[in-house]
Amino acid sequence: MSSSTLRSQQVNRAIYLGDEGIRLMRPSCFTAEVRQFHLRERLFYLDLLRATRYGLIIEVGCSGYRLIGIKNDDNDYLGIEINPPRMRRLKSRRGAVIRCEARRFFKRTRLIDEIMRRYDGKVLCILPFNFIGTMDAPIEFLTLVCKAPFDLALSLFSTSDTATVARHEYYDLCGISVQGVVRTDDYVRLDCSNGFQAFAFDPVFLVNRISSYGFRLNEIEYHDVCNFLHFKKGAS
Predict the structure, then answer these.
(1) Nearest to 65 by CA among 80, 47, 45
(2) What's this model's pTM, rounded to 2 decimal places?
(3) Given 1, 35, 53, 105, which residue has the most CB atoms within 10 angstroms?
(4) Whole-angstrom Cα distance, residue 112 to residue 100?
């Protein structure tokens, strides 16, 4: 899949900063399938963090500390958000959010090195709620993510027909009108009237892609509407 196929000239970013972006994370716009996605996502990460110890959880595209509740009491939490909440620090919950575009965060190599040093390498980076699928040029972004030394977890919409119908309904409620559906072996893409593009990636495609950067798949969970993947970096 060529990078030009998946480039959308920062259209998605602009939409996320507008009214549609606010509605995308507004509970009144969540369909039953989206609420199911959120529930399964939380359960997956709660189980993951019971089984694997981390010092820091990074949620990229965190909205308002959306997944802070999954962490253990002795974990720290860092949210990366282009449109952050007013309260940037929750001292009692060991959480903070920094205002930063996701690509820019992963280019800040000195900060990333300091994070790894401070937490002795025990850092989990989460790309939540199909975040990768709604990025501009998502495969280029994933390549940047995979160059970071963090362990990685992703929450994805499925490529099933059920998930595609659910995504269509969800985006319509958010004021994003779906005009077409493109299906390939690697993804299902929704093309919308305002230029917004939303991908659902095949997990096998992502596993192969991410593994080529030195990751080992540690856990994968499939559902009809959503899938979850956890990778360890540099593990044998």
Answers:
(1) 80
(2) 0.91
(3) 105
(4) 14
Find the radius of gyration of the CA atoms of the chain: 17
> Side by side, which strands form the sheet with 215-222?
89-90, 95-99, 76-81, 56-60, 123-127, 151-157, 226-233, 215-222
The count of residues in the chain is 236
Report the alpha-carbon angle 90-70-100, nearest 5: 55
Q: Tell me the one-letter amino acid at 7.
A: R
CA distance 54 to 164: 34
User: How many whole angstroms separate alpha carbon 104 and alpha carbon 117?
Assistant: 20
Label residue 7 by pLDDT band (50, 70, 90): very low
> Which pair of tokens denotes residue 46?
């709660």
Q: Which of 14-23, 27-36, 142-151 holds the top average pLDDT? A: 142-151
Whole-angstrom Cα distance, residue 72 to residue 230? 18
48 with 230: CB under 8 angstroms? yes
